[in-house]
Amino acid sequence: MWRTGKMVALINRRQSRHKGRQNPNTQKIYNNLQRPRKGTVSYHNKTYEVDDDIYVYGSMSFTAEQPWYIPKDNLTLMEEIHTGRFARIYKASHKTGKTSSEMAAKVLKKTPDEENSLLMMAKINFAATQVGEHRNVLGFRGAILNNDALGPVLVLEYCENGQMDKWLRDHRDNVNVDTLERIQSFGLGIARGMEYLAIKGICHGAC
Questions:
Q1: CB–CB of 68/96 below 8 Å?
Q2: Cα–Cα distance for residue pair 177/119, rounded to 1 Å
Q3: Residues of 172-194 as b/e, b for ≥16 C-beta within 10 angstroms?
């Protein structure tokens, strides 16, 4: 759900439906997260229906060149590391002056057209203007906007240790104290990142 009002209404309906089925011995669990603020913005990256937010962020323009603009010649795609319904993720090399750094580049899966380019621009502009920086949230590093062949390219922080789900699968048959401590650390980092996004009024995922 993109709009906070819709999400609250959905939660209320579900609570009403299940209220009669609650076990009287079941205690409620509380947390310290605040209710979403009025005017909450959200970005649902798993749906591709036309929505106001896509047009707001996808059509956003700036009066001056932004510091996060990356010239297309400064980024080299190296290897594909993941593919999804909408885009492919590549390990990339970003050159700035005489130095290079590893990045993750999100590239349109299909030939760029008005619809998928608008969605990618919405992702780029949302990340650039709304998300901000936090150690437990994947960092926005910039975007390429002048590549006609690939369309807009979203450039993100590269996680050298790979995807967490793969790490968990690789270690599920060898669980020891060190593994459990790392999983606990992962969980704490995820909670801190989600708290940061919640405080900013951002809902990411199946909301």
A1: no
A2: 43
A3: eeeeeeeeeeeeeeeeeeeeebb
Which region, left, alpha or beta, applies to residue 126 given φ > 0 means left and ψ of -120 to 50 means alpha? alpha
* Cα separation, 200 vs 156, whole angstroms: 20
Closest listed residue to residue 158, CA positions, set 73, 60, 92: 92
The fourth-level CATH superfamily of domain 4-164+190-199 is Phosphorylase Kinase; domain 1 (3.30.200.20)
Six-digit token string for 191: 């909670």
CB distance 110 to 87 below 8 Å: no
**How far apart are the C-alpha atoms of 10 and 8, rounded to whole Å?**
5
In the predicted model, what is the mean pLDDT of the chain?
78
Given a cut of 70, whether residue 14 has pLDDT beyond it is no
pLDDT in the model for residue 204: 61
Grade residue 27 by pLDDT with cuts at 50, 70 and 90. very low
Are 103 and 94 within 8 A, CB to CB? yes
Domain spans of the chain?
A: 4-164+190-199
pLDDT tens digits, 51-94: 567 767 777 777 788 999 999 999 999 999 989 888 999 999 99
